[in-house]
Amino acid sequence: MGDYDFFAKFAADPTDQNYRAIFAVVIAQPSWDPYATDLAEVMQLLKDGQFEAARTRCLEMMPNRVLNPRAHWLLSKAAEGMHDADAAQFEMMLASRCVQGILATGDGSMERPWLVTAVEDEYDLLGLIGRRPHSQASMTTSDGRELDVMHCPEGDAHFDITAIRRALDRQFSS
What we know:
The protein is α+β, with helices and mostly antiparallel strands. The protein has helices spanning 3-12, 16-27, 39-47, 51-60, 69-81, 85-104, 119-128, 162-173; strands spanning 114-115, 135-140, 146-151, 157-160. The two termini are 27 Å apart.
């Protein structure tokens, strides 16, 4: 099955299994950077009314941003600015599917942490579900998983970053 087939399957059914299949494809990309902050550039292009440039720049970030809800939200806003209602609606659906997929990976507890492809996705997800992180910590569990812990007034939220750390280790050891 090709990468786009995996994504089509995920978009139709954003289950844990389908999310993880795309997750594996994304983190295997040589250009993948879980600490990238490039979506701020797209946001600025949108603020400046440069909708086509924003769309082009965001599409250049794929497949690294394919599971990123904010990337699809920004693509939706670019489409709206270009008066393409169908594309705007489609990208909003994909943004929603990305959120559903992340939520399907766990419940945010230490035992069942959420899985994301980029650190900023942690903040985006928490904002979408109404949590406000006030601090962050990293921890290693007794079974060797590496977690980001986002401390929120509503309770801690945990994200499994084991695969992110391993992929970064491979990139830096090459």
